[in-house]
Amino acid sequence: MFALNFNNTDMHIFYGKVALIAYLKTIKTTNSTIGFVPTMGALHQGHLALMQRSLKENDDTVVSIFVNPTQFNNPEDLAKYPRTLEEDVKKMRVLSDKIILYAPSVEDIYEGETVSQHFDFDGLENQMEGKFRPGHFDGVGTIVKRLFEIVTPTNAYFGEKDFQQLQIVKKMAEKNNMPVNVVGCPIFREDNQLAMSSRNERLTPEERKEAALIYKTLTAAKELFQTSTPEETIAFVEESFQNNERFTLEYFVIADEATLLPIDHRNKDKNYRAFIAVFVNSIRLIDTISLN
Ligand code: PAF
């Protein structure tokens, strides 16, 4: 089933959980720590930064590469998601041959039933990505819980670009009493400040250049928010995208960072964050910025 030839790599690569779990048992000692970086592959600098941090902070680091079907609400998005295992392995080897890679099949994870478990994340799942991608966070919760059970990490690293996902994973771990420290890591950006994402690979060079408008608008909105109402800030962002026909704004939300609930007025003691989802022609991109 796996035609790729990785014979000249010293990295440990596992395609099945049974072998991975057995191997982790042999390397674990009473006080040793396992860092974990779950990914869907098509690795970019942002992923590599998560791995670097894990390598630095833990005795061992496990990376998973698995395009999880249950978190895609759009079959075309799933079909088109880049799958680049061979290049991904090369990138990881440059970083460190100490990385332990888990690249399971759908069968290894779902055992014949490719369905999500239903979760209650105390409402975190109802906003933004949850609203526009029905079932997405049940899929994320299902796969991350499964991966945490298999890898039993001490620390697990997630990028803040998917801030809502990060909060949901923290909630999932807490509600299931999983002894893992979920660590949020800063967004990695391209030279033009576009947030790094595997989806950027699908943009044309022209679209990639123009997508700089997303972060530019977020920083302008942050500045405006210091002296304006949420409503005025939202109107400014909506107008910025209306003026450019390549872009379709799906949502721009200003929310309380802890509850992710949209706000209509500010309260001095709270932390706020702006969230955005935009189509650049047919490619959907998300980004976020702290407003404090
Ligand atoms: O952020 C991602 O790439 C995915 O949602 C994750 C956390 C690997 C789960 O499939």
What is the element layout, followed by pairings?
Blueprint: E1 12-14, H1 17-27, E2 34-39, H2 45-57, E3 60-65, H3 75-80, H4 85-95, E4 100-102, H5 106-110, H6 128-132, H7 136-151, E5 155-159, H8 163-175, E6 181-185, H9 205-210, H10 212-225, H11 230-242, E7 247-256, E8 272-280, E9 283-290
Parallel strand pairs: 1-4, 2-3, 2-5, 3-4, 5-6
Antiparallel strand pairs: 7-8, 8-9
Helix pairs in contact: 7-8, 10-11
The structure holds pantoate (PAF).
End-to-end Cα distance, whole Å, is 50 Å
Can you count the beta strands? 9
- Output mean pLDDT: 95
Strand content: 15-25%
Helix amount: 25-40%
Name the CATH architecture of the largest domain: 3-Layer(aba) Sandwich
* Uncertain stretches of 5 or more adjacent residues: none
How many domains, as an integer? 2
For this structure, what is the CATH homologous superfamily of the largest domain?
Answer: HUPs
